[in-house]
Amino acid sequence: MGRIRVLPDQVANKIAAGEVVERPASVVKELLENSLDAGATSLRVEVESGGRRLIRIVDDGCGMLRDDALLAFERHATSKLRDVKDLLSISTLGFRGEALPSIASVSRLVLETRSAEETTGTRIEIAGGKMLRCEEAALGGGTAITVRDLFFNVPARKKFLRTEQTELAHIASLVTHYSLAHPDKTFQLTSGPTELLHVTPVATLQERVYQVFGSQVLEDLVEIGVREKELFMPAPSVPPSEAIAEYRREPDEPPTRLFRLMGFFSRPQVQKGNRNSIYVFVNGRLIRDRLLLHALSSAYHNLMPSSAYPFALLFLECDAEEVDVNVHPSKTEVRFRHGSFVHDFVRDSLRERLMESRPAPSFASGTASARPMASPAQAAAKLPYSEFSQMIENEPPAGASVLEPAAPSLPEFSLRPAAGPSPRLDFSAPPIPVTPGPPPSGKLSRRLDAHGEFPAGSIPPPETSLTALSDLRPLGQVHESFIIAAGRDGLWIIDQHVAHERILFEQIMKQRAAGRVETQRLLMPLILQLTAEQQIDYARIADELNASGFETEPFGNRTIAVKAAPAAVGAADLEKMIYEILEIAETELRGASLDDLRRGICASLACRAAIKINMRLDAAKMEWLLRALAETDCPMSCPHGRPIAMHYSTREILKAFHRI
Ligand code: ADP
Ligand code: MG
């Protein structure tokens, strides 16, 4: 009895319609998803000419029965859905029953497949949607699909393809992503004679990240661990109330839903110029979702400038009923049933984890992120950066994201000798060739020479947490702006202005929360002229402004009077400060919360009041600053998201001097 059925019209009509085959990468995506749905543990992808000439995917999945193999090329033929009800809880990657017929209609396709239930396999040949041959064939188990000459019969579509390298980069990115989502499976990608990716099964995601990106990148990431949260859905008999109405369950539903988050994300110092290094999987499906992207960036709020993006590899798991994947034909968008719950769960889990790790940036990472960063796809395609960025500029990736090199965002420090250690954080780190040795043991090989030996065992364990700040010994200042300090492990450089800004910010936030911001009355009220727009913003934020230690009131048409201000603000700064807050209000209020506005006000108060750069500090002042910084909740970056401290570890120093 075959497994595949043609969906009845009333189900087919409910499926998000549209073309799925845009480019070679979309073919690869559909075929890979089919192989994964078929339970394959080994997936081999071969391409030629960026997938234009050839795409071949070989899997060891369940294969197809002869009758099914024929049916699979009918529109809306699928083994994964039966009726409309199934659409509400899709647990497979595919469900539309459209990929195979769509691909077969625009290429020369050969399907070779054998199910364990049959003794011989089936070979089907189709060109431009026409069946040319269907025959029995002696085949091993599993399925191989060969797609040649994509769009040979649709020249208009062919014209829109980019260069071979670009198409290849998209494919490489896609296969890399799927390999990250399935560490227990083998993935192999070859382009002609070149092997671009080959990863064998490993037990953990961490090991797969290591296989794909290398150990250095792993060091710059924070592992989320497994975060779980239950959503309680009140019984339907409870009278509806506004606040919980969204969570109300149907009579036959269980009372709770479990959400689970896993994966990796980068320390705040890793800053990318766009979102292309963010991979989000929901129930194993690679998606682009604004809600989750927003949750991610809110987790970094005040830790990273809002124009920068992190690297993230997030896996969200939940009941299939909680997420609607039938939103977009390429299945890359989803809709959550309890969107705000999911949003807050992701944001809070990441935020808590970020705060726990209190990560310190290193010089190496600082300099590395100031360079353009590459992607696995790019490395895989062996492209020079400039060529790659030019090629994928402004081009939305098909089916999945392609990492794009980021704009420099961190200040560049030139402490590193010219022939220093190779920069970290290169996300292009080696997918090719991917036959890594055992993970680094932490033991360092020493080289004996006439310059003396660095005693074995005296290299301190790497200091990656800013907790170390409390033991630092300040040595002096550079440019009367940066404090240089020695620690248990290496050298630190601290931006005195942003360090103080962070200390003050947290103090002011605490005072604000307790409702006792120190204020001082002005001798003469300060009268400020507002534009019409500013006046509207002022009306919105007046209460918040007054709660933050200001005393302001309207004073005639488009004018306000400021009678008191937080003690931290000097009289000379007051006017600028109020206009700055109005500016924050203008941007923050567009969609952001009151909480963000409050943080914005506290951040600008802190900035105004903090020690400036180009200011001499004596030893006692520097020590005080470092201690106070160590006691803050978040010593890694200033409220605006700039880094505070850079770390040059003993290991990096030794490496730079060629001692290890
Ligand atoms: P969908 O994945 O949405 O069901 P497709 O057109 O992609 O639709 O595939 C049609 C059917 O062909 C699938 O439902 C599945 O039963 C079968 N199929 C496709 N690829 C494979 C494969 N690699 N191994 C086993 N069965 C497959
Ligand atoms: Mg499919």
> Helical segment tally?
19
Helix amount: 25-40%
CATH class of the largest domain, please? Alpha Beta
What is the subunit organization of this protein? Answer: single chain
Q: Give the number of DSSP strands.
A: 25
CATH architecture of the largest domain: 2-Layer Sandwich
Numbering strands along the chain, what is their spatial order in the largest sheet? 7-6-5-8-3-2-9-10
Unreliable spans:
364-450
Tell me the count of domains. 3
Q: Structural class of the secondary elements?
A: alpha+beta
CATH superfamily assignment of the largest domain? MutL, C-terminal domain, dimerisation subdomain
Bound molecules: adenosine-5'-diphosphate, magnesium ion
Mean pLDDT: 79
What Rg is obtained from the alpha carbons, in whole angstroms? 29 Å
Question: How much of the sequence is in beta strands?
Answer: 15-25%
**What spatial form do the alpha-carbon principal axes imply?**
elongated
| First-last Cα distance | 65 Å
Fill in the CATH topology of the largest domain: formyl-coa transferase, domain 3
Q: Sheet bearing the most strands, described?
A: 8 strands, mixed
